[in-house]
């Protein structure tokens, strides 16, 4: 194993319930909009990756027309991103328990670290800098760099290309079905560390599924990579995984 590519939201950080969801509600309130995303229903909204795409899908479901959404969503999402960054700065978004120790073990073994997220670079960089140190990860690829977000494999194909490694030497660590499908479609083995929002996701094809980073040893990642059957991973078929 020569590199591990980490997803961000839900993986390196437990950032959805008390982060992106809260920032979205604060933005709705500032814009005088009646919408609020409660903890439970937000899980279903996460099926759509990308905050802007998620807002479009939700507001369309609330009956808002395309033209109004095209005008509103970039402004609303921009403010939400600032509010999320403020939550990060205020220490409201932390690393998932156990992930820092694993990052240290991976680096001590001379294995490279990279990031591939659907989230926006505007908050990804300050978050990585504050919680982990930015320089540890290369490349850092975000939703801004790809034409299509997960479950499309684009971000993982680009990360693999920039790493300059063979797929068989690289492991992905994700939290969700969308992330797993993206990694598999890029021909990469993928370990899934589920969280409260993703514990019931369909995760067949994962090289390993655990529910915490605590006690997850580097040896377990290396074993998962060596035993993963990446020959039969289906290419991305354009459809989101069944939920
Ligand atoms: C999760 C996402 C992101 C975040 C919100 O990304 O789908 O869209 O929910 O961030 P990942 P933005 O799990 O791939 O890290 O609003 O900036 O998109
Ligand atoms: Mg994720």
Structure in words:
This protein is an alpha/beta fold and 243 residues long. It contains nine helices and six strands, in the order βαααααβαβαβαββα. It has helices at residues 16-30, 39-45, 51-61, 66-89, 99-108, 121-131, 154-163, 177-185, 218-227; strands at 3-6, 112-116, 137-141, 170-174, 189-193, 208-210. It has a six-stranded parallel beta sheet, sandwiched between helices. Helix 8 (177-185) links the parallel strand 4 (170-174) and strand 5. Helix 1 crosses helix 4 (66-89), helix 3 (51-61) crosses helix 4 and helix 4 (66-89) runs parallel beside helix 6 (121-131). The protein is globular, with a radius of gyration of 17 Å. The two termini are 31 Å apart. Residues 238-243 have low confidence and may be disordered. The structure holds xylulose-1,5-bisphosphate (XBP) and magnesium ion. Residues 7-10, 20, 49-51, 81, 117-120, 143, 150, 179 line the site of xylulose-1,5-bisphosphate (XBP). The site of magnesium ion has 7 residues, from loops.
- What is the number of beta strands? 6
Question: How would a crystallographer describe the biggest sheet?
Answer: 6 strands, parallel
Which spans of ≥5 residues are poorly predicted at pLDDT below 50? Answer: 238-243
Instruction: Report the span from N to C terminus.
Output: 31 Å
Indicate the mean pLDDT. Answer: 94
Count of helix runs: 9
Order of helices and strands: EHHHHHEHEHEHEEH
Shape: globular
Share in β-strands? 5-15%
Helical fraction equals: 40-55%
Helix-strand category: alpha/beta
Bound molecules: xylulose-1,5-bisphosphate, magnesium ion
The radius of gyration over CA amounts to 17 Å
Order the strands across the largest sheet as they lie in space: 3-2-1-4-5-6
């Amino acid at each position: 194993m020569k590199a591990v590519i980490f997803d961000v939201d839900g993986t390196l950080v437990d950032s959805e319930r008390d982060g992106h969801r809260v920032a979205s509600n604060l933005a709705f309130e500032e814009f005088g909009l009646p919408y609020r995303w409660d903890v439970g229903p937000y899980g279903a909204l996460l099926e759509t990756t990308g905050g802007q795409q998620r807002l479009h899908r939700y507001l369309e479901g609330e009956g808002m027309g395309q033209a109004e959404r095209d005008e509103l969503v970039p402004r609303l999402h921009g403010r939400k991103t600032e509010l999320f960054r403020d939550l990060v700065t205020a220490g409201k978004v932390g690393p998932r328990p156990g992930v820092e120790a694993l990052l240290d073990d991976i680096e001590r073994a001379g294995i490279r670290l990279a990031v591939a997220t659907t989230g926006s670079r505007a908050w990804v960089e300050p978050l990585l800098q504050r919680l982990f140190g930015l320089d540890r990860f290369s490349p850092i690829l975000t939703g801004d760099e790809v034409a299509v977000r997960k479950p499309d494999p684009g971000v993982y194909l680009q990360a693999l290309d920039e790493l300059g490694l063979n797929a068989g030497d690289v492991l992905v660590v994700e939290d969700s079905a969308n992330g797993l499908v993206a990694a598999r479609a890029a021909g990469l083995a993928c370990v899934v560390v589920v969280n409260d929002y993703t514990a019931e996701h369909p995760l067949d094809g994962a090289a390993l599924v655990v529910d915490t980073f605590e006690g997850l040893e580097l040896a377990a990642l290396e074993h998962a990579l060596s035993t993963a059957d990446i020959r039969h991973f289906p290419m991305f078929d354009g459809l989101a995984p069944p939920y």
